[in-house]
Amino acid sequence: MLCGTDADIIEVAGPSPDLSFRMRLLRSENPDVVNGLLALLPFQSFLLHVVVAGETIYTPAPSISLSSKNMVPRQKGTVYWNTTSQSVCFCYGAVTESTAVNQFAQVLDEDLPKLEALGRLVYRETVSAKTPTIVQMTMRLPGDNSAPKTQPHSVVGDKFDGSWQSAKALIEQEIRSLRQPQEPIDIKRIRLGATAARAGSEGSALQTIVFLQGFLSTLGPHVFSRLLAVSYYPEMTVPLMVRQTREFLIQTFNHFHFLSDLGLRRTAKLGDVYSQALDSVTTMDEYRELTDAMRTLIQLLYRWLHLVFPWHLKGRLQSRSVEEADGMPSLAVLDGVNP
């Protein structure tokens, strides 16, 4: 039985009252994440559904904490902070992944049916839909009905003056726009196949969105998150950190320009701004502030791609038992083809 006071309660408001629930914060078990979350409230975003971890929904969020202080197994009602993917996650049913999670809250027992109903709605409207729907949510303190201010889609202009502060401001302007429950124009065009990248001479846009999904799923949660983790190594210096970052992200293969080629046009300009701004950082804290902003931007683009990815095609891939698969023919080797 959970203990605490009403001050420990957070409301998660879904599309309607019967799809909204309350959770109790675990202050003593995970103070860093709890305090980080409270500083964001009221927080508005959109909900997504996992594709391999069972019955769990989540919402992308700003960086809250890099610490993992309350690693526990998942169960129905667990609310946890996914550090690498920068997401607040809500387990509403069965879990099919064994990794422990960084729990910071627990949904109230009496509200579990509402969480489950919301989870099934998100599943139906996102990963199970041919054309997904944006499911909004707001996290807030009880009784706080003030809505976060919306902001129009930003345009990267001439505000960059070479400093990491101005670069961070430009990136964060884009982040605030991407957090709004409105499909970004680049995402819409990718979803509808209006991209130039292709395989050979065919005009299918499937390859582009598949590649983007896989590429972004590692770039933000793993590459950027690892760079930030390495920045805390006591032997690491700022010049070496900057050099390593450029080696990973820009030298030989410019990740930001590649994403632009695949349809995420804003990443090329913002990536150039980020790269130039690295020359102005003088401390690890400055490096982390700038790099975490860029990581958050990449994570949000990944979440939008996750929302519009054609998961409904899963019905065309037949499921089989291990025994059935092992008993079927392997791929043939092409031989004797006439020109």
Radius of gyration, rounded? 22 Å
User: What ranges have pLDDT less than 50 throughout 5 or more consecutive residues?
Assistant: 149-157
Number of domains: 2
Helix/sheet category: alpha+beta
Q: Can you give the mean pLDDT?
A: 89
Number of separate helices: 10
In whole angstroms, the N-to-C terminal distance is 73 Å
> Within the largest sheet, what's the order of strands?
1-2-8-6-7-4-3-9
Which range best describes the helical content: under 10%, 10-25%, 25-40%, 40-55%, 55-70% or over 70%?
A: 25-40%
How would a textbook summarize the main sheet? 8 strands, antiparallel, barrel
The global form is globular
Q: What amount of the residues lies in strands?
A: 15-25%
The total count of strands amounts to 9
Order of helices and strands: EEHEEEEEEHEHHHHHHHH
Give a summary of the structure in a few sentences.
The protein is of the alpha+beta class and 339 residues long. It is built from ten helices and nine strands. A hairpin with a 4-residue loop joins strand 6 and strand 7.
Descriptive account of the structure:
This protein is of the alpha+beta class and 339 residues long. The chain folds into two domains: 6-140, Cyclophilin (Beta Barrel); 164-313. The protein contains ten helices and nine strands. The chain has helices at residues 31-38, 112-125, 164-178, 185-191, 206-230, 238-249, 255-261, 266-277, 284-308, 322-326, and strands at 9-13, 21-25, 43-49, 54-60, 71-72, 78-82, 87-95, 101-107, 135-140. The protein has an eight-stranded antiparallel β-barrel with strand order 1-2-8-6-7-4-3-9. β1 (9-13) and β2 (21-25) form a beta hairpin. α3 (164-178) packs antiparallel against α8 (266-277), α3 (164-178) runs parallel beside α9 and α7 runs antiparallel to α8 (266-277). The longest helix has 25 residues, at 206-230. The chain is globular. The chain starts with 8 loop residues before the first strand and ends in a 13-residue tail after the last helix. 35% of the residues are buried.
